């Protein structure tokens, strides 16, 4: 026994020892702990922890489509360590399962199975899915409802059929929200009186049911109103009044105050019984009534305003029926058609406009009056006679000795006013030959024949018919007054009438005036002749013939220029306003040293072939320069009578007698008589004469400037010579060596100058302390130019008048005054002016207008190696100054070809600038936008000279064309890196990127051009170039947070530029393929507002390996090929899969940044 026990014990020990030896082997065989900390080795060593089954709480299940239910699984044993389960459906089109939740999708059957992850034990549930029960209808618990209080409510109940329908949802609406409202629980609330309908609609099927709701609030006492408060009837007529009650349908009783005048029945019908007045009353039951006053008259009072009427053909007159009763109407008619036309108007057509249609006939017009029921009351009549209209006079005007051609359209218009027909022909009664003559086909003194009284002149002319349009009247040269020419006419219907042509013959109105100085050329202004033509005949000028002046006084030349000329003007030649030889090129050249006034006669023809005559008054004054003095500030200067005597001799040819002064502004200084170091006898008076040889002596006058004043003072004066010839001039005193103090402008030869009202306002403030009210000008000699008002490129409203005040703030406006210099005039024109401030204080001054011949501007030169060139305003000002005209104000640029580069405004970097320069903006020297903020950026790879034209405008308003030439010479070596020797083709681009802070190289002096660009470095350069402004969030998992390109890649990822692979990695240290570089570039352009769309893959076909571009990159590569960024290698390949070198990267990025 003991031996057996010992044997058993030893056996157990052996088993335990073997078991202990197997455990380490089991761990070593691969039982590594998982991420959850559990051992995944064979669990057979621990049988108590193994799953041995699974069960479901349901083995079958019935569901309707759209419903769901959850199955619960139980793993056994409950102490099993692995409880994980998997669910699936045998027919996911019928039912789907997720963590035990079963959802019915469509009718059918499916098995839902659960499986344990440990051991693979299963359990199933059979699911049958049936269709949901549809809705077949709906009804309400009531179909009618009455509410009697504002805000009262009641709830309706909707019952969906069948009761077990799957979708029991309904929604509620009303048809009149002003009567009732309803919420989505069926609660109906009263809003206002009326009837409304509540509709309930099922969500499934849209079935409806209705309830009619009446809302009746307590009503106020009934009210009544009548459609009329007064009524006029004739005996025997009637009219029904209409009563409106509230509430509607209230019973109404009717009565009359005098049934012998008017009776009324209970429908409101009023019948006129006898003449007089009565009151009809209507009263609503339980309420207050309303009345209508009725007047009954006798229809025999219905009369026409006239029984006989005469109306001219084409004219109108009127008829009317008086005493028309209310509601009555009139029907107008004529007993014969086409004699008159009738146009009824007014209440009941009581009025009628009668127009004559056929002259020489009579017709009876009848007015039939009926009451409102159609009863005929009266039919008064009128006899209308249509008479021929008188032809209106045809008016015209012509100057003495001039001609006027008849306008046949005026004759035709007169004809249509008589009978309404077109004109056929006319015959004339000839006027007195002492007044003028009628000619046929007259032109500048020649004609076919005189008009005959027996000849018919036809409208429109015709074969073998004399044309009315070729008849002209020529006035006698010495006659002025009225001429009446009678004529007889026949229209196209054969009707005849008479008329008259009334012609006003006037003497030449006004004359044209020109002026100049001795030995000064006086050009003629064709605009003056054109204006005179319009004034006399009403039409513009065609040409002029001149009567030549005496050669002792001067000569008329054609195209005279400083002694040279084409020819002398001929009295037989015509000088045209709009054709050659041009009237504008005619000038008068006074005989040497001749002065005085000359009259030149001329004849002219307008554009309608009317002729007229006139005179030219030319005044040539003796040459006399201004009298000039200068004085120190706070000093004084005495006038020299000898200066004035010399002036008189120059102006008149004889010695001086006396002078009168226009006093200067006291702000500038004062004229004194017998002045001596602050003492004086008196101030000079503008009403006194100061003599050369008697008291008060001119020699004793002194000018004393105002304290501390500097500038030039202009003092106008008038004088008389010993021979009693008058003259005028100006004293100009320069005080303290200061500037002129006058208003000055300058311009190129033949350039108009428009005055600035601001300049005169500032001058006025300086002189008076107040703003400007107006100025008046002393007119310059026309040989130097003319002041115009409303001038615009040759056209103008009128010439400036010396007697007209030109205002700052009202018409006529000072700012619309323009000086137009005489043709080719050079020099300075001085125009004196006087003015008054808003404070009523007078002042005076001088306007200095300088005209000079300008030259071409200088060319502006710049050079660059490939970087931007910023313009300097001073360069443009210097170029403008070389013209010799006014200073530069602004320029407008013509844009350079894009193949050379672009002009930028406020350029900071390739991706930071204010905008592109456009070709319609004026860039200013001193203002904004400024010339000095414009930069030219050459296009990558461009070499050569680019010429940029511009239009300059100087301070006088004159424009000119100038040029900027920029020489672009890219360097073949780098200015910063020593290892670019074999990569000279990229040196320009590398330096461009370096200078713009995009690349820094790989050392102090090395760039490593043959090195491959990594993905991370390329994104870093894109970030620097395009200034990624988005702060990145998360980054790719393979981008170290501390790396130098981490922030750039993070921002690029946030912008959608860097997108990485499907594994969430970006591979920043990997070399970059050419096609990936193009994708990153295009995304960068699109995300930073420099959009470039995908291009057609056909652009890749020009390269031998174009088809090898990956599909995701084709659009990007094609777009950059189209833009000229990618050009392929020397062999015509794109090499899209090849890695990009740092040199290639620099060239590509340079091209992109200068697109």
Quick overview:
This protein has twelve helices and 82 strands.
Task: Describe the protein in words.
It is a single chain. With 1155 residues, the chain is mainly β. The chain has ten domains: 46-130, Immunoglobulin-like; 137-215, Immunoglobulin-like; 223-297, Immunoglobulin-like (Sandwich), CATH 2.60.40.1080; 299-387, Immunoglobulin-like (Sandwich), CATH 2.60.40; 394-506, Immunoglobulin-like, CATH 2.60.40; 517-621, Immunoglobulin-like, CATH 2.60.40; 627-735, Immunoglobulin-like; 743-852, Immunoglobulin-like; and more. The chain has a six-stranded mixed beta sheet. Strands 29, 31, 34, 35 and 36 form a five-stranded mixed beta sheet that branches. Strands 47-55-54-49-52 form a five-stranded mixed beta sheet. The radius of gyration is 55 Å and the shape is flat. Residues 1-48 have low confidence and may be disordered.
Query: Number of helical segments?
Result: 12
Number of domains: 10
List the quaternary state of the chains: single chain
Q: Distance N terminus to C terminus?
A: 108 Å
Question: Which structural class matches the secondary elements?
Answer: mainly beta
Helicity level = 10-25%
The overall strand count is 82
- Nearest-integer average pLDDT: 87
Largest sheet: 6 strands, mixed
Determine Rg (CA atoms, Å): 55 Å
- Mass-distribution shape: flat
Low-confidence stretches: 1-48
Strand content: 35-45%
Strand order of the largest sheet: 37-46-45-39-42-43
């Amino acid at each position: 026994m003991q031996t057996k026990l010992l044997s058993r014990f030893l056996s157990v020990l052996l088993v335990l020892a073997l078991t202990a030896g197997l455990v380490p082997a089991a761990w070593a065989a691969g039982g590594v702990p998982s991420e959850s900390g559990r051992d995944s080795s064979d669990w057979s060593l621990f049988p108590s922890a193994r799953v041995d089954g699974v069960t479901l709480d349901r083995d079958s299940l019935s569901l309707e489509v759209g419903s769901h239910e959850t199955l619960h699984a139980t793993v056994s044993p409950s102490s099993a360590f692995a409880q994980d389960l998997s669910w699936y459906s045998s027919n996911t089109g019928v039912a789907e399962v997720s963590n035990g939740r079963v959802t019915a999708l469509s009718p059918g059957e499916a098995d839902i199975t659960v499986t344990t992850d440990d051991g693979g034990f299963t359990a199933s549930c059979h699911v049958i899915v049936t269709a949901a029960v549809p809705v077949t209808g709906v009804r309400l618990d009531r179909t009618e409802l009455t509410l009697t209080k504002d805000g009262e409510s009641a709830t309706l109940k909707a019952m969906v059929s069948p009761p077990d329908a799957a979708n029991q949802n309904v929604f509620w609406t009303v048809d009149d929200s002003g009567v009732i409202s309803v919420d989505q629980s069926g609660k109906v609330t009263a809003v206002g009186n009326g009837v409304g309908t509540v509709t309930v609609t099922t969500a499934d099927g849209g079935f409806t049911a209705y309830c009619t709701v009446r809302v009746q609030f307590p009503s106020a006492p009934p009210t009544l109103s009548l459609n009329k408060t007064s009524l006029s009837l004739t005996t025997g007529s009637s009219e029904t009044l209409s009563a409106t009650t509230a509430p509607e349908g209230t019973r109404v009783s009717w009565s009359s105050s005098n049934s012998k005048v008017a009776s009324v029945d209970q429908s409101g019908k009023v019948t006129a019984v006898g003449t007089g007045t009565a009151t009809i009353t209507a009263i609503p039951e339980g309420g207050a009534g309303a009345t209508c006053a009725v007047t009954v008259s006798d229809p025999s009072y219905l009369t026409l305003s006239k029984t006989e009427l005469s109306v001219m053909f084409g004219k109108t007159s009127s008829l009317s029926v008086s005493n028309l009763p209310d509601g009555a109407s009139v029907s107008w008619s004529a007993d014969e058609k086409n004699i008159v036309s009738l146009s009824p108007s007014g209440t009941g057509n009581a009025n009628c406009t009668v127009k004559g249609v056929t002259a020489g006939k009579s017709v009876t017009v009848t007015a039939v009056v009926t009451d409102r029921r159609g009863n005929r009351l009266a039919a008064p009549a009128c006899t209308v006679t249509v008479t021929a209209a008188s032809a209106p006079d045809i008016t015209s005007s012509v100057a003495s000795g001039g001609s006027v051609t008849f306008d046949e359209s005026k004759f035709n218009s007169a004809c249509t006013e008589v009978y309404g027909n077109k004109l056929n022909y006319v015959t004339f009664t000839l006027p007195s030959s002492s007044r003028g003559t009628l000619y046929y086909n007259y032109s500048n003194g020649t004609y076919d024949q005189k008009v005959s009284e027996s000849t018919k002149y036809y409208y429109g002319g015709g074969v073998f018919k004399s044309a009315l349009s070729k008849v002209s009247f020529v006035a006698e040269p010495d006659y002025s007054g009225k001429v009446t020419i009678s004529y007889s006419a026949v229209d196209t219907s054969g009707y005849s009438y008479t008329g008259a042509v009334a012609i006003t013959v006037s003497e030449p109105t006004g004359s044209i005036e020109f002026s100049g100085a001795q030995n000064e050329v006086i050009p003629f202004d064709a605009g003056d002749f054109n204006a005179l033509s319009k004034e006399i005949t009403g039409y513009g000028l065609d040409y002029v013939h001149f009567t030549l002046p005496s050669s002792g006084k001067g000569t008329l030349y054609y195209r005279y220029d400083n002694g040279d000329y084409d020819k002398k003007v001929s009295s037989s030649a015509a000088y045209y306003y709009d054709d050659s030889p041009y009237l504008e090129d005619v000038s008068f050249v006074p005989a040497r040293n001749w002065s005085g006034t000359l009259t030149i006669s001329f004849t002219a023809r307008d554009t309608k072939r009317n002729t007229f005559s006139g005179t030219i008054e030319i005044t040539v004054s003796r040459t006399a320069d201004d009298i000039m003095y200068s004085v120190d500030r706070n000093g004084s200067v005495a006038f020299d009578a000898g200066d004035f005597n010399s002036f008189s001799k120059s102006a008149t040819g004889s010695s001086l007698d006396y002078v009168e002064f226009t006093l200067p502004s006291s702000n500038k200084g004062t004229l004194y008589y017998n002045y001596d170091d602050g003492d004086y006898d008196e101030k000079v008076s503008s009403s006194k004469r100061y003599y050369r040889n008697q008291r008060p002596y001119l020699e004793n006058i002194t000018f004393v400037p105002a304290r501390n004043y500097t500038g030039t003072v202009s003092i106008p004066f008038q004088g008389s010579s010993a021979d009693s010839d008058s003259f005028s001039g100006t004293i100009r005193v320069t005080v303290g060596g200061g500037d002129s103090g006058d208003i000055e402008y300058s311009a190129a030869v033949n350039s108009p100058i428009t005055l600035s009202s601001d300049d005169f306002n500032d001058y006025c403030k300086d002189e008076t302390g107040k703003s400007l009210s107006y100025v008046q000008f002393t007119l310059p000699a026309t040989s130097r130019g003319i002041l115009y008002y409303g001038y615009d490129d040759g056209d103008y409203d009128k010439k400036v008048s010396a007697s007209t005040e030109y205002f700052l703030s009202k018409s006529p406006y000072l700012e619309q005054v323009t000086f137009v210099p005489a043709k080719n005039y050079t020099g300075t024109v001085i125009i004196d002016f006087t003015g008054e401030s808003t404070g009523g204080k007078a002042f005076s001054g001088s306007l200095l207008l300088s005209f000079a011949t300008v030259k071409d501007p200088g060319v502006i030169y710049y050079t660059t190696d490939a970087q931007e060139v910023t313009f300097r305003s001073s360069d443009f000002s210097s170029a403008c100054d070389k013209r010799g005209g006014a200073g530069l104000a602004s320029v407008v640029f013509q844009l350079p070809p894009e193949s050379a580069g672009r002009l930028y405004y406020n350029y900071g970097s390739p991706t930071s600038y204010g905008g592109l320069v456009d070709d319609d903006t004026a860039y200013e020297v001193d203002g904004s936008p400024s010339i000095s903020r414009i930069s030219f950026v050459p296009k990558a790879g461009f070499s050569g000279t680019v010429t940029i034209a511009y239009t300059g405008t100087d301070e006088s308003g004159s424009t000119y064309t100038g040029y900027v030439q920029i020489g672009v010479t890219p360097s073949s070596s780098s200015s910063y890196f020593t290892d670019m020797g074999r990569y000279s083709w990229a040196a320009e681009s590398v330096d461009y990127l370096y200078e713009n802070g995009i690349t820094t190289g790989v050392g102090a002096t090395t760039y490593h051009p043959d090195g491959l660009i990594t993905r991370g470095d390329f994104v870093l350069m894109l970030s620097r170039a395009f200034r990624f402004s988005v702060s990145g969030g998360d980054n790719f998992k393979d981008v170290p947070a501390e790396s130098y390109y981490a922030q750039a890649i993070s921002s690029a990822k946030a912008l959608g530029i860097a997108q990485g692979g499907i594994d969430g990695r970006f591979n920043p240290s990997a070399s970059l393929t050419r096609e990936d570089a193009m994708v990153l570039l295009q995304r960068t352009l699109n995300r930073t507002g420099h959009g470039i769309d995908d291009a057609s893959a056909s652009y890749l076909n020009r390269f031998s390996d174009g088809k090898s571009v990956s599909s995701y990159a084709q659009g990007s590569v094609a777009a950059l090929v189209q833009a000229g960024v990618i050009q392929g290698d020397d062999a015509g390949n794109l090499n899209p899969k090849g890695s990009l070198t740092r040199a290639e990267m620099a060239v590509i990025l340079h091209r992109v940044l200068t697109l």
